[in-house]
């Protein structure tokens, strides 16, 4: 699976130059045009009212992206939820629950007090959000309107956050936040199956606010007519797998360290670690949302032994699925990621405008 994912990435970004690879890419590019057309027609259907979209009786903030893979949605949702809870709002996150065994079923992951299901059932991201943000209600389901109805009946939230919601047009939103990777905002420019775009680039016009993630020195501005913010990611500390005291990077200094991850962009995680002065002896990558089992754990242990590493380090998203294997893999640290803002004013202004609205006006 990892080999297939790597091959696909190299293919669509032009690294594969054999004749058969070029022919395959041309075929995929031809197929991407009808796919993009279908998505445009779908979006038009919702915009014109030909397809039904539901309004909830309280504000809905959507956080999503236009490409496959990681743009930092989970850190963004976690920080946004924590901020809103800090303002005294009762917040519920609606998530698809991708990677979990619920298979689209509506499930309450957290009631804001306790986490009610394990990560294997909820999926890693909903579980991590429930674990990371005290007081957060998390409900998963393929039909997020029905999931919201359940949340309204049982928890009466003041506000919903629609996680990975940019394409979920069946639910109306009051603030649509689009995350774009500053390095490759539109990947190779093609929609599936020839690229990583979930929708044509023109779909970005639906956004109310654009947040650029993984920014370096430059601050891209692809949609000057829209409010925008620039952010970067930084690993700020580590903590032992299973809990314990957070610390700086001292435990990872002077020892041989193997890093592993099953997220959308493992290489960016490894780069962040090395950018904080953590020398990595070896690394191993797994596909996004990997459900860790015997094969993955055996591969990690083999690499750890072959590289003569003393410690392992991984992401928070991976860590929630590793509890059953903690003794087997040995000492392991979890890297804690923080979203850093260069200027939050456009986001804060949008939230203030939203929270200040009359609920009756939002329901109209």
Descriptive report:
The protein has 364 residues and is of the alpha/beta class. The protein folds into three domains: 2-47; 60-231 and 341-362, P-loop containing nucleotide triphosphate hydrolases (Rossmann fold, 3-Layer(aba) Sandwich); 234-338, Rossmann fold, CATH 3.40.50. The chain has twelve helices and twelve strands. The chain has helices at 2-12, 19-47, 73-86, 119-122, 124-132, 144-155, 266-275, 294-306, 316-319, 326-329, 345-355, 359-362; strands spanning 60-65, 91-95, 107-111, 137-140, 159-163, 175-181, 209-213, 228-240, 257-261, 282-285, 311-315, 332-341. A twelve-stranded mixed β-sheet has the order 3-4-2-5-1-6-7-8-12-11-9-10, sandwiched between helices. Helix 7 (266-275) links the parallel strand 9 and strand 10. The longest helix has 29 residues, at 19-47.
List keywords for this structure.
12 helices; 364 residues; alpha/beta; disordered C terminus; globular
Write the layout of secondary structure elements.
Layout: H1 2-12, H2 19-47, E1 60-65, H3 73-86, E2 91-95, E3 107-111, H4 119-122, H5 124-132, E4 137-140, H6 144-155, E5 159-163, E6 175-181, E7 209-213, E8 228-240, E9 257-261, H7 266-275, E10 282-285, H8 294-306, E11 311-315, H9 316-319, H10 326-329, E12 332-341, H11 345-355, H12 359-362
Parallel strand pairs: 1-5, 1-6, 2-4, 2-5, 6-7, 7-8, 9-10, 9-11, 11-12
Antiparallel strand pairs: 3-4, 8-12
